[in-house]
Design brief:
Helices cover 28% and strands 15% of the residues. It is built from eight helices and eight strands, in the order βαβαααβαβαββαβαβ. An eight-stranded parallel sheet has the order 2-1-3-8-7-4-5-6, sandwiched between helices. The N and C termini lie far apart (38 Å).
């Protein structure tokens, strides 16, 4: 039975609050405040709660080396893809931490251990009939890990909008010239901002003038959003000016694809409010 129109699943587990380092910007309040805000606004009661699960080694080995997995003990909390593809819900939001988009196949980087969205994309591609997945990363930092994992894979269109000025993290990657290699050439799209301070109009221009035609041609069967909110107005790391309305507008544009099958996975964003 198809999901009711507009139904949304939410992934959350309090176990993700346990990982903490005093004074570190990637702290439990990021997800606690987000979950509490959804509760206060009456939104959680309108969503379907999806149960997190531990990742299997088989799932993780699609993206990471055995040596990398053996160094990390973590929770994979994103059953959202299966719920959307099965029709249990029409879209979903995985409120997870730590973030994942910097984690490469053999490297821990930038607060990230396992690449949540990459593992989710591979899980989707294992489903019958799923051949094309879009990953749109609007975190203000380049999704270097996701790019590295899918650089040669034409089944995944990876798009990243991020700051690429000076020594902004991560250095040495995320340039427009990085378009994929081998069979994946043309399936990696970077939109590198040359300065801080980018806002709604800049992101909408990138969508309307560049990204929408590319996405339409790719014709994804599932959309995954690496939903970092450190491009938001007021974030002390991102120093940009995207408003809640701006993030909503980007989401609405992405919902025009894949029959509305969209899963957002939390990445960065360090000012809980």
């Amino acid at each position: 039975m198809p999901a009711p129109r507009g139904s949304c699943g939410v992934v959350y587990d309090a176990v993700m609050e346990l990982h903490m380092r005093e004074g570190h910007p990637e702290h439990p309040n990021r997800i606690k405040e987000l979950s509490s805000r959804l509760e206060r606004e009456g939104l959680l009661s309108k969503c379907t709660r999806l149960t997190p699960k531990l990742a299997t080694d088989e799932e993780l080995l699609k993206c990471h080396s055995r040596a990398h997995i053996d160094r990390v003990d973590g929770l994979y909390s994103n059953p959202a893809v299966c719920a959307v593809l099965s029709g249990q819900v029409s879209s979903a939001f995985a409120i997870v931490r730590p973030p994942g988009h910097h984690a490469e196949s053999q490297e821990l980087m930038g607060f990230c251990f396992f690449n949540n969205v990459a593992v989710a994309a591979h899980a989707a591609l294992e489903q019958p009939g799923v051949e094309r997945v879009l990953i749109l990363d609007w975190d203000i930092h380049h999704g270097n890990g996701t790019q590295q994992i899918f650089l040669q894979d034409p089944r995944v269109l990876f798009v990243s909008l991020h700051r690429r000025d000076g020594n902004f993290y991560p250095e040495g990657c995320g340039f427009a010239e990085e378009v994929g290699t081998g069979p994946g050439r043309g399936f990696n799209v970077n939109v590198p901002w040359s300065s801080k301070g980018m806002g709604d109009a800049d992101y909408m221009a990138a969508f309307d003038l560049l990204l929408q035609p590319i996405i339409e041609q790719f014709d994804p069967q599932l959309v995954l959003i690496s939903a970092g909110f450190d491009a938001a107005d007021g974030d002390f790391l991102g120093l940009c000016r995207v408003s809640p309305a701006g993030f909503a507008a980007m989401t609405q544009r992405l919902q025009q694809h894949a029959g509305g099958k969209v899963v957002a996975v939390l990445e960065g964003g360090y000012v809980p409010r």
